Amino acid sequence: GKLGRYPPWPGKIVNPPKDLKKPRGKKCFFVKFFGTEDHAWIKVEQLKPYHPHKEEMIKINKGKRFQQAVDAVEEFLRKTKGKDQASSHNSNEEKNRRSSSEERGKQSTVEEKRKASLSEGKLKKGTGEGKKRVSSVSSERGSKSPLQRAQDQSPRKRGRPPKDEKDLTIPESSTVKRVMTGTVAGFKWPPSVSEPVKDSDPHFHHFLLSQTEKPAVCYQAITKKLKVCEEETGSTSIQAADSTAVNGSITPTDKKIGFLGLGLMGSGIVSNLLKMGHTVTVWNRTAEKCDLFIQEGARLGRTPAEVVSTCDITFACVSDPKAAKDLVLGPSGVLQGIRPGKCYVDMSTVDADTVTELAQVIVSRGGRFLEAPVSGNQQLSNDGMLVILAAGDRGLYEDCSSCFQAMGKTSFFLGEVGNAAKMMLIVNMVQGSFMATIAEGLTLAQVTGQSQQTLLDILNQGQLASIFLDQKCQNILQGNFKPDFYLKYIQKDLRLAIALGDSVNHPTPMAAAANEVYKRAKALDQSDNDMSAVYRAYIH
């Protein structure tokens, strides 16, 4: 779902898990959201007492889920009532939540309208909506995340119950169970739009969501439309961002960054790292591609081994499993520069077996490894709006925070190595299959005497309307197949996704059919064109 539509949500300040670090910066509390299994670190400024705002909130939000949350608050208050005064305060808060739930519904509608005029980041950040959904999905499965840790360390104030939105719940579901140990109920409110966020891009939002029961498996999303307050872990709290300062609040890490691979994706990533003030050393198999970045302030590395040995964190973004392995294991490769403490982040889209093998050899030399494939295309890379799927070393993920903010819109941490590779292949499988379906429809329209432009207009008025659909169709109608995402790479991702299905005996007939069409397009010399050139495979 889109971020920014969730209204304030009733929550309870609870004790964070002992192993959860408290976020850096302003004082915050660990909040459990009623009606969900979500938890999050919420800043004091974002919390409002349940009683005074109860009626207002109920007016704003009339949704079923909100009503369920309010009912949960009331039930909690009933159970704790009589134990102490604090419990009775909670029951009042429950009532407030009911009223506030109605208010939230109205508020979310207003916020959606405001999105058009204001930056999406502000609203989304304030409501934390999109994040919530993510967290509710994975967090419900249960797991305890570092976010909980952070809350444990933060002091709690009874007078300010947090009100959180589903986004904020992202942190972890199991945390919710842990935090059941007492506190005041209240609403978590979005921070003021103008509130500055420390070391974070106003347009980059972090959500932390726990997917599994392992504390290590949480994933955080950082979204540029939202402002995220990176506290100690860099993923602890979510805050509304001032949409006016697009890049002003990113504080680049002082670690030396290396980057290997300056293709369609890598070039945009490096450019954004440099723009945000990072110190970057670059290497590419064909050295000429490095020249432009040297002019922009990058340093030149002669070999992958040299880059790794002279930098603290080295990123790589290459074409496929073979290239990723050669880069690490080949002559003067990454592995030769790895020594204890060196960090390697592979952003290539490869299969889980490949990335697991690379992680093992890097770690065996004392290095730290993170896989971080990206979802996007050349345009999104240039705009610094990629979606980053990370897994592996959680500490390294947090150390990469300023880098991910510079290059991405959102970042997810998915747990152990291999998870990001699998998720990335599934995402690209869906995208590749959809692209083939679009091409099939456009060509069928043409051969049956229907206007392709009218087909596009109709699709754009329906539920399939999307930037992807519109841009790809427009490019096809204009005969523009300039690569934004190479056709040969989407076919590679389909092939790897089908193999992933094979490994678990799961049928992937749609992807298999799409893959055959892309193979036909490759045979027609469309490999180095955009994936939309799959259209040409349908032309008789």
Automatic annotation (TrEMBL):
Its main location: nucleus. It is found in: Chromosome. CDD domains: PWWP_GLYR1. Residues 79-132 have a biased composition (Basic and acidic residues). One of its GO terms (cellular component) is chromatin. SMART domains: PWWP (SM00293). Residues 1-53 form the PWWP domain. One of its GO terms (biological process) is transcription elongation-coupled chromatin remodeling. One of its GO terms (molecular function) is DNA binding. InterPro entries: 6-PGluconate_DH-like_C_sf, 6PGD_dom2, 6PGDH_NADP-bd, GLYR1_PWWP, HIBADH-like_NADP-bd, HIBADH-related_NP60_sf, NAD(P)-bd_dom_sf, PWWP_dom. It comes from the Eukaryota. Keywords: Chromosome. Residues 1-23, 79-174 are annotated as: Disordered. Gene3D superfamilies: 2.30.30.140, N-(1-d-carboxylethyl)-l-norvaline Dehydrogenase, domain 2, NAD(P)-binding Rossmann-like Domain. PROSITE patterns: PWWP. PANTHER family: CYTOKINE-LIKE NUCLEAR FACTOR N-PAC (PTHR43580:SF2), OXIDOREDUCTASE GLYR1-RELATED (PTHR43580). Belongs to the HIBADH-related family. NP60 subfamily. This is Cytokine-like nuclear factor N-PAC. The gene is Glyr1.
